[in-house]
């Protein structure tokens, strides 16, 4: 992380949210609607996180896998879906080929605009192009986040904080307890998204056909492709093809490791293009874009007061103190080129996520959201997706706003505010979409 000089500028907020992806946007809007004055810090020039920065143009976890699927994420997440639909930037929900899971496909420019508008309407002070570089804290309280821009450093003082950074950067800098990966320090591999043009809409882009082309290319001596099967889908309006094939193993906290992974993944992307050009209707295929950043699934976690457990996830348990729901199957990515490990939830339903899973174990005013929450390896393989991140972010932001206002921030109070903001905590009380 960059070294910080003493800040020359300071601003005061009730809640400061670090990270402008799904979890951060959910947290910022939820906190603002709970009465807080909110700052949202993002180092990219736009909001959206993995969707816009890494080209992960699939919204997973918004729906259960039942037939018909049921909406499991409401509140801010549901408003984002509505805004994308109004912009013509979403298709779905639909079931994918092969894995038969329920997703929506999204367009990145629509995501950027929709999130800009929703944050502005909620009164969130969005600060783009700001990189977190330090924090001021004591043994149990975070007081300020220090960020860097081209003018130097600036401080964002607040009464409560949400770490939605993806890498638990705020927690680490504040001295809160964190861990890397699972109990053994292992993380899921990442994947570089590919957007491909030049393939007519009537061409066969099925997983089996593409996998055959990759196998044939390997048989001819191609060596740079790690994976034969992955998601291949056509985006709703551009007609581009979205493909997740180029797997890499790396440490997302280490610049050299991530740099090497991205360089190698870009080589893979070109090799995949060469392979699929051998297919009928794919002769003119070309690479529109990769990433631009590789899609990291896991690195550091905030150690919380409780840990989300695989047994509760797989058995679709929804405790009475849940503040968010998760509905995505367990989807593990154990290593480059290895098959994804899938386990569906009992009854293809949803599970509950408790407030203590989002509360830092060491710092009373720090909350975790998105892929930094505390979960064991299998539970995390479900809870990391963007639909669930909107839900955990929404709950974390509300909890932070309650703390900032001096109100009780227990599960009952957070649940009440989540429901007031149209969140979903009980599938039986919501109709299917």
The tally of strands reads 20
Instruction: Report the average pLDDT across residues.
Output: 95
* Dominant shape: globular
What portion of residues is helical?
25-40%
How far from one another are the termini?
A: 43 Å
Low-pLDDT residue intervals, each spanning 5 or more residues: none
What is the count of DSSP helices, taking H or I runs of 4+ residues?
A: 11
Give the C-level CATH assignment of the largest domain.
Answer: Alpha Beta
Total domains: 2
> Considering the protein shown, what is the CATH homologous superfamily of the largest domain?
FAD/NAD(P)-binding domain
CATH topology of the largest domain: FAD/NAD(P)-binding domain
Proportion in β-strands = 15-25%
- Helix-and-strand structural type: alpha+beta
């Amino acid at each position: 992380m960059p070294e910080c000089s003493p800040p020359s500028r300071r601003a005061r907020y009730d809640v400061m949210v670090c990270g402008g992806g799904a979890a951060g946007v959910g947290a910022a809007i939820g906190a603002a609607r709970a009465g807080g004055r909110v700052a949202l810090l993002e180092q990219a020039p736009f909001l959206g996180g993995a969707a816009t920065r890494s080209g992960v143009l699939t919204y997973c976890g918004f729906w259960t896998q039942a037939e018909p699927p049921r909406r499991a994420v409401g509140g801010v997440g549901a408003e984002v879906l509505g805004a994308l639909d109004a912009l013509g930037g979403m298709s779905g929900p639909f079931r994918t080929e092969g894995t038969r899971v329920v997703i929506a496909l999204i367009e990145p420019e629509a995501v950027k605009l929709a999130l800009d508008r929703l944050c502005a309407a909620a009164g969130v002070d969005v600060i783009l192009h700001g990189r977190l570089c330090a924090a001021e804290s004591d043994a149990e309280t975070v007081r300020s986040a220090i960020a860097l821009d081209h003018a130097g450093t600036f401080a964002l003082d607040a009464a409560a904080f949400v770490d939605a950074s993806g890498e638990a950067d705020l927690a680490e800098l504040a001295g809160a307890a964190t861990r890397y990966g699972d109990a053994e320090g292992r993380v899921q591999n990442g994947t570089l998204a590919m957007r491909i043009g030049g393939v007519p809409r009537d061409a066969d882009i099925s997983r089996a056909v593409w996998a055959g082309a990759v196998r044939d290319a390997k048989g001819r001596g191609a060596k740079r492709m790690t994976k034969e099967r992955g998601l291949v889908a056509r985006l709703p309006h551009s007609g581009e093809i979205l493909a997740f094939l180029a797997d890499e193993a790396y440490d997302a906290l280490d610049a050299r490791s991530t740099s090497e992974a991205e360089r190698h993944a870009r080589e893979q992307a070109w090799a995949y293009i060469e392979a699929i050009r051998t297919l009928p209707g794919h002769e003119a295929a070309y690479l529109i874009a990769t990433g631009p950043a590789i899609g990291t699934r896991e690195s550091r976690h905030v150690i919380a007061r409780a840990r989300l457990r695989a047994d509760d996830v797989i058995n679709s348990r929804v405790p009475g103190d849940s503040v968010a729901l998760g509905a995505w199957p367990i989807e593990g990515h154990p290593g480059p080129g290895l098959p994804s490990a899938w386990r569906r939830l009992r009854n293809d339903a949803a599970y509950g996520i408790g407030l203590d899973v989002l509360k830092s174990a060491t710092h009373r005013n720090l909350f975790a959201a998105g892929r930094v929450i505390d979960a064991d390896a299998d539970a995390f393989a479900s809870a990391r997706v963007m639909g669930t991140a909107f839900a955990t972010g929404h709950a974390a932001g509300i909890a932070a706003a309650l703390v900032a206002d001096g109100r009780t921030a227990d599960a009952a109070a957070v649940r009440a505010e989540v429901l007031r903001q149209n969140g979903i905590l009980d599938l039986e009380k919501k109709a299917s979409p």
